[in-house]
Amino acid sequence: MPKYSITKIEEYVSLGMDKSLTTKARGDALESLVCYLFGEIPGLMTQSNGVDVFKGSEIDVSVANTQEARWMQVLPVCFLVECKNWDAPVGAKEVGAFVTKLKEKGVQLGVLVAANGVTGNADNLTAAHFKIAMAQQDGRRILVITLSQLRELRTSEDFAELLCRSFLKVVASGRF
User: Fold this and answer.
1) Is-contact 134 126, C-beta < 8 A?
2) In what order do the strands lie in the sheet with 78-84?
3) Which Pfam families does its entry note (predicted)?
């Protein structure tokens, strides 16, 4: 599978961390990074900034998965990605809103790219961790990927394997 350009990854990360830019520009940098990383996995196609006809809900990135790459065969053929390029961890309210988006769209898998993770404690299932665990009751799975994890990726196979391992972990334990 293709190698990622570390320079390109770091350029997106630098833009996303540049406090002189607007919040939107910083968020767009993370979305662009996510589209780049997913787009290099064979058999995946991404679409950014999908807005529903009522202008009530925006999807940061939609992913179509032909399941060509071996690790991607475990994941559904379509899933959604929410990007949160925040200085703080993402809270339960925002995770709950993402779960609602998945439900409204009839999608079972969501990937939350949270620059600094989510609130709460995984062992005690508090705050955002609770929302992620409870989403499984409706057959929804939420994978949380952090910016530090994205920066460690060297190949698209690394990313596909990270997604697969995260998916298996959340299915088995309700935790990511």
Assistant:
1) no
2) 44-51, 58-65, 78-84, 109-114, 141-145
3) Mrr_cat
CA distance 146 to 82: 12
pTM of model > 0.90: yes
| Domains recognised in the chain with CATH numbers | 6-171 (3.40.1350.10)
